[in-house]
Amino acid sequence: MARDIGFTQVSASHEVSKLAKLVGRGDTTVVDAYLSPILRRYVDQVAEALDAGRAVERLLFMQSNGGLTDARLFQGKDAILSGPAGGIVGMVKTGEAAGFDRLIGFDMGGTSTDVSHYAGAYERSFETEVAGVRMRAPMMDIHTVAAGGGSVCTFRDGRFQVGPDSAGADPGPACYRRGGPLTVTDCNVMLGKLHPDHLPPVFGPNGDQPLDADVVREKFAALSREVAEATGEPAQPPETVAEGFLRIAVENMANAIKKISVQRGHDVTRYTLQYFGGAGGQHACLVADALGMERVLVHPFAGVLSAYGMGLAEIRELTEVQLDLPLAEAARAEAAEAALRGKALAKLREQGLAETALSCRVSAHLRYDGSHQALEVPFGSASDMQAAFEQAHRQRFGFALPGRPLVIEMLSAEAIGATGEAPAALVPEGGAPKEKARLRLVADGERVEAPLYDRAELPAGWRAEGPLIVTEPTGTNVVEPGWVARVDDLGNLVLERTGASIRAPAAGTNVDPVTLEVMGNLFMSVADQMGATLANTSWSVNIKERLDFSCAIFDANGDLVANAPHVPVHLGSMSESIRTVMRENASDIRPGDAFMLNSPYNGGRHLPDVTVVTPVFVGDEIPFWLGARGHHADIGGRTPGSTPPDSRHIDEEGVLIDNVRLVDRGRLLEDAARRVLTSGRYPARNVDQNLADLTAQVAANETGRQALMKVVNTYGLDVVRAYTGHVQDNAEESVRQVIGTLRNGSFSYPMDHGATVEVAITVDRAAREAVIDFTGTSPQHDGNYNAPFSICRAVVLYVFRTMVGKDIPLNEGCLKPLRIVAPEGSMLNPRWPAAVIAGTTEVSQAVANALYGALGVVAGSQATMNNFVWGNDRYQNYETIAGGTGAGPGFDGCDAVQSHMTNTRMTDPEILEKRFPVRLETFGIRRGSGGAGRWHGGDGVLRRMRFLEPVTVTVLSGHRRIPPFGVDGGAPGAVGRNRAELPDGQVVELGGNDEIELPGGGVFVMETPGGGGWGRAE
């Protein structure tokens, strides 16, 4: 209809993407509708100009999937990553021509670095987030980190920091003569790796001056003095400062490569690093050193390899079909495979390709039944696909489950039209190359002399040991000491390590601002690797889809050192779980052991949150601990999902696990764990899923242990142990600085069920300390509105971390200047056997709002997790539902987001409806629910779900009676509402903490609160 009435661009989601997941497909459709008209105008202009000049017979464009397509078929959704995709094609074509079939792509430009992995086949992602937009279209699998030549170098909060801000092209780095800041490029100028005499004079306001090395030296010298004044240490030479920043940038890029290699089970030391992009040549050897890689490949067109790769690419057509078919019924997939193959090949025939040039391969994307992690294998017989899947699963995750049923989630076909293009040999004529100059540069803290060569003069067979510099029109290549360079028969520069890696300079146990940043990032990277393993290997929707988990590193005392950016309420409360295991197993902990617990009285939160704790042995001592906490969909209890609204005793909420050995010297105690999970008055309902998620948590900790041991082997135990303390000290100092700006405050926060959170914050500005006193808070609740003290501690940690307003780690140091008083026997420090299910979700949010109220910085958020739990004997699911956040001085609240103590993701509607007998009829913003004011509060949401079979629905929610507060004349947000609509038309109003048995066809509706406004509306 739209086309009939004159719309020239119509993007229909079923045409844009054939894949399940409503949100990603919707985003992709919007992107396509926005970009395609703009792209079409550009393509038509280019085609018209080329046709007028008879310049080409045919116009092709590069797609994000790595294939070319005819200009008339080029769509906006396929253009997003077309440039980087060309680089990957160029890397693969030139790398394989040089004899290397295992490649890590390292594409470093001015603002960021793209990294990629290749081991015989292009890796594509069918779900990619680009600039916050979720795309459901096949794209080359590329990971980006904000570390480029223009990344800004600063000294803040006692640490050297590189990025994420970039100087861009204008003003650019300081050496560009446009008044820019110090950047990674300036580090290389300072170290002599980029020399003004050997770069074109294209800088300055008029683009006619050489690089300015003098201003770089002046700025680094000034920065050195600033660091000395801040730390009380002697000023360092400018070169040392520059090398410190460069080391941080290199580690950041190495950590990015770990995400696409080590985290997926690939041994990166067996790969060749192939750099491309203008800035890669100055850092390739250093990045390879940081990863233990032995070889770097530099093509003659490395600086423009993305463009060259487009010229080498084939015409490709990728198409997919969603199946969700049991592998046991693979014969039914054969017709779909044939149709898909025919469709892909037909698209290439339409582009005029000869039949002899065409080929096609079809892949099946398999996953275990109940899991969401699909792996791509060649389509074939059921037995062949199963064998290939299990091999791939072992490679990626370290294990396989041969008895578990498999599902063919989708098929993808890739039709290829061979172009006949191959990388050309680009070798200059023979002759002995001459040194163009001898330069003095700094490498590994030493000043050395290095010859400089013009690459155009280097013949095949040439060989020289580093340090040396090779210049070419599109880049500068630095061969570090311990590396040798040679030219192969195709003109490639091949760099190979001849000695031990020089990447880890001797580091003492005393704090220095460079190693502090490096170690902090390494600790974060370890926790991030743990989280990736847990998300990949878990089974439940809660952990895999909603990401309701957290992973963290702790020191020998059980203090939090580093965590990945996971759920805030988990992170501040895990330390006590670690200390419980330490205390109760002091004489009986061995390498390979792991323990599990969920006790709210020993660092746990509520019973569904099970923590797996693993010691990290170095010799006979345990300098580190690892924790992986995941929200299990059901751990028993009176109701499915372990969330009874009227529980009065902890046993009613599920199985209490208090320090149980889960792994004994590397052996999973599955039978013992099963006995625990099936014990008690109300045992777990889906023990197999519990065990699968526990196994994933164990695997996550093992990933962390291996990664942490690599750090220890590189830097030494004494240094790593010292820096687990230094990163906490750094966070502590940042919080102390904030405390010095605060004033005393208090707040009384009433809750719907009649209890009140009372808090008084007393600030000692001279000592830069504060007391957070909850005296006066309501006594322990007879029901389940009780928050364990560990939760109170986690909320205080979260709130004061956010008050810092800078990029500091969330660790135990944030709490050291704070003394928390929560009277025992109050609802913020309950005694056994208090029920806690509502307290850990609802009371934690109330405490956060009360603290912000006492600090006077933001109006009330929805202050509830809107827990919506439903299930029966066959299914259980748990959601926390978004709402509005509070406004503040100078900003509006946000609509429809998770806030404060939870940040879990909603399950995609199509996945939800596929996995469970439900229909999601409405999910949208509840307009007008945010409080009015000069700055208005964020709006809540409306969620309406129909159940197709009988279920028990449990809701735990807040602000159904008392609205979220406004500040300074701002209006409060609207209260929330819960109701059930029965098939006979009856509407049942539900309380904030309620339960109902819904028959098939029944509907549950939730309207979540809005945030409070700030200031009187003008």
From TrEMBL:
It holds the Pfam family Hydantoinase_A. Residues 999-1018 are annotated as: Disordered. Residues 512-1016 form the Hydantoinase B/oxoprolinase domain. One of its GO terms (biological process) is glutathione metabolic process. Residues 25-317 form the Hydantoinase A/oxoprolinase domain. GO terms for cellular component: cytosol. GO terms for molecular function: 5-oxoprolinase (ATP-hydrolyzing) activity. PANTHER family: 5-OXOPROLINASE RELATED, HYPOTHETICAL 5-OXOPROLINASE (EUROFUNG)-RELATED. This is 5-oxoprolinase (ATP-hydrolysing). It comes from Tranquillimonas alkanivorans.
